[in-house]
Design goal:
The protein is of the alpha/beta class. Among the domains are: 163 residues, Alpha-Beta Barrel (TIM Barrel), CATH 3.20.20; 193 residues, Class I glutamine amidotransferase (GATase) domain (Rossmann fold, 3-Layer(aba) Sandwich), CATH 3.40.50.880; 53 residues, Immunoglobulin-like, CATH 2.60.40. Strands 5-4-3-2-1-9-8-7-6 form a 9-stranded parallel beta sheet. It has a 7-stranded mixed beta sheet with strand order 11-10-12-13-20-19-18, with helices on both faces. A 5-stranded antiparallel beta sheet has the order 22-23-26-24-25, covered by helices on one side. Strand 7, helix 10 and strand 8 form a beta-alpha-beta unit. Helix 5 runs parallel beside helix 8 and helix 14 packs across helix 17. The longest helix is centred in the middle third of the chain and has 29 residues. The two termini are 34 Å apart. The protein binds beta-D-galactopyranose and zinc ion.
Length: 657
């Protein structure tokens, strides 16, 4: 990734979305003062400013933004400048209703909120390009411009007629002929054969279950259609400023965008992370998204948005207890973030997000939130030099693929209890609890540098991915796979035998008789642990049985199989059991935890030369740390051990006096 080291010498960017158009200009100097005091060095401007910039079609109102850009520059704050194309003004929907999305029932999704655009609409695209062009031309040479932020969390779907035409063109390019499409979608079933391209529509509401091939392609198409919008704007800004990096902020682990594909088109990969403060595993979630984003970025990444306190889109919205915002921010840095930013700078007093926290809340300058933000800003300043640009190394990878997720989560599946993201999260949690830092990887990526690769659950695997996995194990790698993996090919066609033959050979399985999903909340007794969610009736063919099922229909049959360095888990072991099993396999594979002997709740992560210690609990603990270090946060010398209080953190550098 392009380094975030900016014009003003800031290495770790710290700041957030700044939406000053909500306020009278008299408030701006106060904003600037408070930002400066908090160590803010970066603001993201213009994310939702379309109506302010183009109040009526073709009009341009840049004066306010000129003043803001200058103000930022005067105070040595860099600007992440957004194209405002995520929220077209009402005039667009009113004059051009065809720019508004239609849902699966053909109903219009109206303006009055945000994201009301159809990615396939030429009218929307034309207006978006024109404004992007003028914005880029106007600020290309502005010294405060640090980065381009295209749109915001691309996340719309549309089933309109314009989309239908676009979908057909996309399918035409993918399949070349209708015969190939009919074959890929398996339209011989239920009399679904298409005789003319014009008959093809996006999968709209239908009488009963829709065609899975069509659904899968519609997911692929929608991700690509949104990416076309991104690329069009990216190309415009890059033409004006070839050296200014471009990003678009991802939603974390979100189903709509194939982020592996998208990330390749970004200079900086950024993401928005909102762990629930009331989630006992919120820290693990934060770690997981950090790991995923770092892997997409293949290096440092940008935390574009987080909340300093509560959000306002959960059922019950919990604030962050004292210290948690700091801890999770430092955790993101440990996992590779070179930018710690928020939605948003000043809490709104009107509009849909007036109960969503900000860096500066309704409680104001003396409020706890701002005071904590200020402390964090100072601390990040102290870390900046040593941290920015460095790697978070890992020799374990978790495989994840959007296409498999899409194919897996369709109507007509074996069990609606299997939620793909939850399974991935369970495996990441097991590795995280075992103290292993993990990357994520796509199943077709080069895996040779990892000692251990795990597959939580990849229902769909392409031939290329399967060959890649086989080659990885042949080359000396250790692979552990979860249930129901390698069942389908790229068209969601079930492979002969219910599991690809190359994988059956790899795992030493001769026959897969049946999938036996478990009911919600129920478990199955296995040797040494309990399985959840799923079980399989398997006959080994060469594999050693590591653990058997011990009750029910599968009593005595293998639950966990091992064939040399390839392991297969036909159920999802309960958390502690999965953790212990993966810890054992990792140790055999010589994938080592960062530190051993850590008290419960303490996470250790290495980044560059630094050792981050993060205490996710509330009781004071003593952490053994061999050697002599200095804590960059407190400045204190650390010899042999260290105390961490509630949500405490230390960033240690070896002391070589
Ligand atoms: C993000 C979005 C922000 C804000 C935030 C609230 O999804 O990009 O604009 O709405 O959520 O949590
Ligand atoms: Zn549409």
């Amino acid at each position: 990734m392009t380094s975030l080291y900016d014009t003003y010498g800031h290495r770790i960017l710290f700041g957030g979305d700044y939406n000053p158009e909500q306020w009278p200009e008299e408030i701006w100097p106060d904003d600037i003062r408070l930002m400066a005091e908090a160590g803010v060095n970066s603001v993201t401007l213009g994310v939702f400013s379309w109506a302010a910039l183009e109040p009526r079609p073709g009009a341009r109102e840049f004066g306010w933004l000129d003043r803001l850009m200058d103000l930022m520059h005067d105070h040595r704050m860099s600007v992440v400048l957004a194209t405002p194309t995520a929220s077209p003004p009402p005039w667009m929907g009113a004059r051009h209703p065809e720019t508004l999305p239609r849902d699966e029932n053909g109903q219009t999704v109206w303006y009055g909120s945000r994201q009301q655009f159809c990615a396939s609409s030429p009218v929307y695209r034309r207006y978006a390009a024109a404004l992007t062009e003028d914005l880029a031309a106007r600020y290309a040479a502005h010294p405060a411009l640090r980065m381009w932020h295209i749109n915001n969390e691309y996340c719309t779907f549309c089933w309109c007629d314009e989309t239908a035409g676009h979908f057909r063109r996309w399918l035409g390019a993918r399949y070349g002929s209708l015969d190939a499409l009919n074959e890929a979608w398996g339209t011989a079933f239920w009399s679904q054969r298409y005789d003319d391209w014009a008959e093809i529509i996006p999968p709209r509401r239908a009488q009963y279950m829709r065609n899975p091939g069509q659904m899968l392609d519609f997911r692929r198409f929608t991700s690509d259609a949104l990416m076309e919008c991104y690329l069009a704007e990216r190309d415009i800004v890059s033409r004006h400023t070839p050296r200014v990096p471009v990003t678009t902020n991802f939603m974390p682990f979100w189903t709509g965008q194939d982020a592996w594909k998208w990330a390749e088109q970004e200079d900086v990969v950024s993401v928005d992370i909102y762990p629930d403060p009331a989630d006992a595993w919120g820290a693990q979630y934060n770690a997981m998204i950090g790991d995923m984003t770092r892997s997409q970025a293949r290096g440092p990444w940008m935390l574009m948005e987080q909340a300093a306190g509560p959000v306002n889109w959960r059922g019950v919205n919990h604030p962050k207890p004292r210290g948690l915002n700091r801890l999770w921010s430092l955790q993101s840095v440990a996992h590779g973030a070179d930018a710690i930013c928020y939605f948003q700078w000043r809490q709104s007093r009107q509009g849909a997000e007036k109960f969503h926290s900000a860096m500066l809340t309704h409680a104001g300058e003396q409020g706890r939130t701002y005071q904590e933000v200020k402390q964090l800003g100072a601390e990040l300043g102290r870390l900046s030099e040593a941290v920015a640009g460095t790697d978070t190394p890992s020799d374990v990878a978790v495989l994840h693929d959007w296409e498999s997720w899409w194919a897996d989560q369709q109507d007509g599946r074996i069990s609606t209890e299997v939620e793909y993201p939850d399974v991935v999260r369970a495996w990441h949690r097991a590795l995280w609890e075992a103290g292993l830092t993990t990357d994520f990887a796509h199943p077709a990526h080069e895996l040779g540098r990892y000692r251990l690769v795990v597959i939580p659950h990849l229902y769909l695997l392409t031939d290329a991915a399967i060959d890649n996995l086989v080659a990885y194990v042949r080359g000396g790698g250790t692979l552990v796979s979860g249930f129901h993996t390698g069942a389908a090919d790229q068209d969601d066609r079930i492979r002969a035998g219910g599991m690809d033959v190359r994988l059956r050979e790899l795992f030493g399985i001769s026959t897969l008789q049946e999938w036996w999903p478990l009911d919600a909340g129920s478990t199955v007794e296995c040797e040494g642990f309990r399985g959840t969610l799923w079980s399989e009736e398997l006959e080994p063919g060469g594999a050693e049985t590591v653990a058997r099922y011990q009750e029910g229909e599968l009593d005595g049959l293998p639950a966990v199989l091992r064939n040399g360095r390839a392991w297969y888990l036909s159920t999802l072991p309960e958390p502690g059991a999965l953790r212990d099993l993966l810890a054992r396999v990792a140790a055999d594979a010589e994938a080592r935890p960062v530190l051993t002997g850590l008290p419960a709740g303490v996470e250790a992560v290495r980044r560059g030369e630094l050792l981050f210690l993060l205490h996710h609990g509330r009781q004071t603990v003593t952490v053994p740390v061999p050697g002599r270090h200095r804590d960059l946060l407190s400045g204190a010398a650390v010899e042999g051990s260290l105390e961490l209080g509630r949500y405490g953190a230390a960033v240690l550098r070896e002391d070589v006096r």
